[in-house]
Design brief:
Elements: H1 5-55, H2 61-65, H3 69-78, H4 83-101, E1 104-107, H5 110-118, E2 131-135, H6 162-169, E3 173-178, E4 190-191, E5 195-196, H7 212-219, E6 226-230, H8 236-242, E7 245-248, E8 272-277, H9 280-290, H10 293-298, H11 309-313, E9 319-322, H12 333-348, E10 352-355, H13 361-373, H14 379-384, H15 395-402, H16 405-415, H17 420-428, H18 434-457, E11 462-466, H19 476-479, H20 485-492, E12 497-504, H21 507-512, H22 523-532, E13 539-545, H23 551-568
Parallel strand pairs: 2-3, 2-6, 9-10, 9-11
Antiparallel strand pairs: 1-3, 4-5, 6-8, 7-8, 7-12, 11-13, 12-13
Helix pairs in contact: 1-4, 7-8, 9-23, 13-17, 13-20, 16-17
């Protein structure tokens, strides 16, 4: 008996729908299980903190939490502050911030075992007994590194990443993992598994990303030291938005073994591992600990350059380049004021400030950064989303990566007269030949050398730059992928760059924002103006930059900016 063709086709369609439904149901089950584990983690943290409080009612957690990292670590090493007092004080505070901001994805239960072992350690490292939070994408043995992807659930890392191994050898106690945006290619912090992380200073604002969970936890006081990554500002956005400090080192200064990347294999835009903390001295202490023989022996691709104390502690007046705008993303009034006021403070302190002319940032953004990260037309990026139910904050790049070449060409041509930046993004997302990729890498190298030549012609030590801020409203980063120009430039150049909060948004800044037009006066500029609004009292940072491999000089400059800002302000 013959079955009519429509019936066969109808049956196939029904079967296909059934398979899709079953696959989605299985994915939702994995998400639900992960969320249950997250809830269980918070329950365990609450139980551990409560148990300690009941057994030690005289311990004053607030006094412990108020100690800066250098003082805390000294007290831990000399025995004047017990390890468990510090550990459980931070477990309790981290729990509070996690409930408020949804920044923690997992409590590392083995940290309690490590705490007991640390008490028996004969050799005490620089971070002895210090609780440290770890970004989701950095491997911790026995735990998932999801990058916000459902497919990465239930795939625990076989071993610790090198940076986590070194932290442990230095006596640190990694105790939680923190949230990230799906794929990491976003400066918001949301994924389908763990949801949206909120800014601890204003819950309607994003904490930044992709190290957003770290920014929220450290910014809220629930972690004294966090470890994250940066491929376009992913350390600097969370630090600036949450009112703390961070440094993105030169790409290979710290090991990236066991650190998961958003776009694997691309070499055009350098990624880096780095710390976040409340103050610059804490960042310096972290780099002292990490730049050790342990790091160099565990990963021989890391150059054996120990922390240069002489450079960091120098008091020699600096010759500092500066600029107020990159002429691509118009700075908010508060951003421009932050640079101007910091420049004045530095000049009054005896440093020399020299204007630096920044050119061709539009070309750098589209032809080096976007084209460099998506040289394969975005096909490898698209593959990461296969089988996922959500495209997160990377919607524009995902959609463009999926579009056929003819459609990209047509859209780029049609949109060029009306939305030139959109046209440039589309053009940058085309698939390149091997020869074109090699030519691009050569062009980026030339650009780097030209930038350094301009720097040396002015005889500069460091550079003072704007940092995007204040924190944008939740959801805005997904609409404003072009606003990463101030940070991503230094990933393309692979220069060390850090951020230091220097001021707060004022009523006057808010009033001046009404006249914000942007350089292109396109949809993105109008949207950015809206994203900045309603931010009175939120922190604004500046960016401090040095030449490659000069992290200690970068930190020394950051420390100078921090000290002068603290003298002028009392907002910390």
């Amino acid at each position: 008996m013959r079955v009519p063709l429509p019936a066969l086709l109808g049956g196939s369609a029904l079967l296909l729908l059934l398979l899709r439904w079953r696959r989605r149901r299985a994915l939702w089950r994995k998400v639900a299980e992960a969320q249950e584990r997250q809830e269980l983690s918070l329950v365990r943290m609450e139980a551990a903190a409560r148990r300690f409080r009941e057994q030690n009612p005289s311990v004053k957690a607030a006094s412990i939490l108020s100690l800066p990292l250098p003082e805390l670590s000294r007290k831990l090493r000399d025995g004047s502050l017990p390890l468990d007092h510090v550990f459980y004080a931070y477990v309790g505070k981290a729990l509070q911030i996690a409930i408020e901001t949804n920044c923690i994805t997992e409590f590392l239960q083995e940290s309690e075992t490590q705490l007991r072992r640390a008490k028996l350690m004969e050799k005490q490292g620089l971070l002895y007994g210090v609780p440290v939070s770890i970004k989701d994408s950095i491997d911790c043995q026995g735990h998932d590194s999801t990058l916000g992807f459902i497919k990465n659930l239930n795939k625990p890392a076989a071993e610790d990443s090198v940076v986590v191994q070194v932290l442990k050898r230095q006596g640190a106690i990694p105790f939680v993992k923190t949230n990230v945006p799906q794929s990491l290619i976003s400066y918001d912090c949301k994924n389908l598994i763990f949801g949206q992380t909120r800014n601890p200073l204003m819950f309607t604002r994003t904490p930044g990303g992709s190290s957003g969970g770290e920014g929220a936890l450290v910014g809220g006081g629930g972690s004294i030291l966090g470890i994250g990554t940066d491929v376009g500002g992913s350390l600097r956005f969370p630090a600036a938005f949450c009112g703390i400090c961070a440094i993105k080192p030169t790409g290979k200064r710290l090991s990236k073994r066991g650190v998961m990347a958003g776009v694997v294999g691309q070499k055009a835009v350098a990624a880096a591992v780095g710390p976040l903390a409340k103050d610059v001295e804490s960042l310096a202490l972290c780099l002292r600990a990490l730049l050790s023989e342990d790091m160099f022996s565990l990963d021989s691709t890391v150059p054996p350059l120990p922390f240069n104390e002489e450079v960091y502690s120098s008091t020699k007046p600096l010759r500092i380049g500066y600029y107020e705008t990159d002429f691509f993303t118009m700075p908010s009034p508060a951003m421009r004021r932050a640079v101007r006021e910091t420049k004045q403070l530095l000049e009054e302190a005896g440093h020399t400030l020299v204007p630096f002319e920044l050119t061709n940032v539009e070309y750098v953004m589209f032809n080096y950064c976007v084209r460099g990260m998506f040289s394969d037309g975005g096909s490898s990026f698209v593959r990461k989303f296969k089988g996922e139910m959500e495209k997160g904050g990377s919607g524009l790049f995902f959609w463009l990566a999926k579009a056929p070449h003819w459609l990209k060409t047509l859209l780029s041509w049609i949109s060029k007269p009306f939305v030139p930046r959109f046209s440039s993004i589309i053009r940058s997302m085309k698939e390149n030949t091997v020869d074109e990729v090699w030519s691009l890498h050569h062009e980026i190298e030339d650009f780097c050398h030209q930038f350094i030549a301009q720097w040396k012609q002015l005889n500069l030590d460091v550079m003072l730059c704007p940092m995007l801020g204040p924190a944008l409203g939740i959801g805005y980063p997904a609409k404003l992928s072009v606003a990463v120009s101030y940070t991503m430039l230094y990933n393309a150049l692979d220069f060390p760059a850090g951020v230091v909060p220097v001021t707060l948004v004022t009523d006057e800044d808010e009033e001046q924002l009404k006249g914000y037009k942007g350089y292109y006066q396109d949809w993105w500029d109008r949207t950015l103006a809206k994203a900045f609004r309603g931010s009175v009292g939120m922190p604004v940072a500046v960016q401090c930059v040095a030449l490659p491999w000069q992290e200690e000089l970068c930190l020394r400059f950051m420390k100078e900016v921090e000290t002068l800002s603290l003298k002028k302000n009392s907002f910390f």
